[in-house]
What we know:
Blueprint: H1 2-15, E1 20-33, E2 49-50, E3 55-66, E4 69-83, E5 86-100, E6 107-123, E7 127-141, E8 145-158, E9 161-175
Antiparallel strand pairs: 1-2, 1-3, 1-9, 3-4, 4-5, 5-6, 6-7, 7-8, 8-9
Amino acid sequence: MKKLLLLAFAFLSLNGFVLSVNVGASYQIASYTYDTGLFDAVTGGSNIIDYDDPVLALNVELTQGFIFGEIGAGASYEQGYKTGTASFDAVPVYGIVKLNLFPIGIKPYISAKYGTVLYMNEENVTMDNGQYVSIGLGLTLIDTLQLEGSLNASKATRNGADIVNGSYGLTVRYNTF
């Protein structure tokens, strides 16, 4: 009997530290500017240049849930940064903090992400890694589906000049387990 109770206690203790794996996709409208303010590219600053196509992204986030929110890490593969003949893809890697506004029923939350951006598939452009910041407002529905609107910004170097990439969009995520 003692062994059974000890086994049950060990199982319940380990279950308290289970990470959630969220897989999602997003649709974003992106632009860039040579101004140096981090959110200049999405807030209507001067000299904004829009990318030709929307940016499509796939992302994976691992989070540990608590009563008042979540903490974790994530990565996203963003494809579609194209202007003229220049194009590239971005891979933000970031830490996440989510704060539940009220954790009952449909759960609204505020999220903040901070990390770095890696660039790949560069064509007619040279991008150097930069800083990544994102703020978002979302809803968790039926404990498995998340809808999040976000404002994203990253500082980088494009062909030797400092730029700010910015985007806003909608992300849909599914909690796989």
